Amino acid sequence: MPRMIRCLLAAAPLALACTLALAATPSFVCGKAKTWLEKTICGSERLSSLDLQLAVVYARLLKVTKDEDRRALEATQREWSASRQACKPDLDPVACLEERYTHRIAALESRPDYPGDAPLKDVQLPPQSVAVAGRGWTRDLSKLQRPIRACREEMPAPLAKVLAAWPTGDEESYGMRVVDLNGQEWVCIAHQHGHKVFRFDKRDPAEALPDAGPVFHIGPKAPPACRGAVQVLDVNGKTAGWVTEADC
Fold first, then answer.
1. Strands (E), 80-172
2. Of 155, 88, 151, 136, whose CA–CA distance to 244 is shortest?
3. pLDDT tens, position by position, 187-203
4. Structure pTM?
5. Beta 173-180 vs 185-191: how paired, if at all?
6. How far is residue 175's CA from residue 158's CA, in Å, rounded to a whole number?
């Protein structure tokens, strides 16, 4: 099935996190959708919701299956994923896909080894590359790694998360709202290649800055209070952090 969480996680991931809150999002990043199937899913709120639901159900089953049972489950999931293309010439491809998703979810949930509805935060969906992860500003995470690193070196306490980032308009730097492990928010403006930090100040609540979200959480462990966090991998395949739809 297409990458999400992860959800993320994509990515869903790097489609790009994922969460069941507010607007429906599939298990992959719609901003990177290229195929007919991905675009059709992203164009339907119902299909997006079903795609994420199936990703979670499948991930829960993977957690409790091993050896031959796991390989058999993965094989049937690949077959099912490929079968969705048969809906393309259908008179109503969206309805066709909805039916396939509904039947697949029901089939997996009816298995005797299905573990039940564990909390979503305990289920990790496949990770995404930093080059394709996220929504909104986090789609530029690959470009932001050096500016983030430069800002990190200025902080008196370890960097915990980036709430928002934006190009400053001079085509050479990015502004960021960053939070340290003590909960203090800072404003940092750094060169796109991380050569220099032009500004580093405590956030003034009166200053007009981009709203928080999506949020990039730094570190190898998923933020415990966040549902649907999408794991993001750097170019070396190591965990760069986690993307969530909103601050949490």
1. 128-129, 159-167
2. 136
3. 999 998 888 889 899 99
4. 0.50
5. antiparallel
6. 18
CA distances from 129 to 6, 32, 137, 203 (A): 11, 12, 15, 30
Residue with tokens 């100040």: 201
Model confidence pLDDT, tens digit, residues 21-59:
334 577 777 777 889 999 999 899 899 889 988 888 888
Radius of gyration of the chain from Cα atoms? 19
User: What gap in Å lies between CA 218 and CA 39, rounded to an integer?
Assistant: 30
How many other CB atoms are found less than 10 A from the CB of residue 40?
Answer: 18
Instruction: Say which amino acid occupies 22.
Output: L
Secondary structure (3-state) at 87? helix
| The token pair that represents 202 in the structure block | 């405590």
- Domain range annotation of the chain: 30-122, 129-244
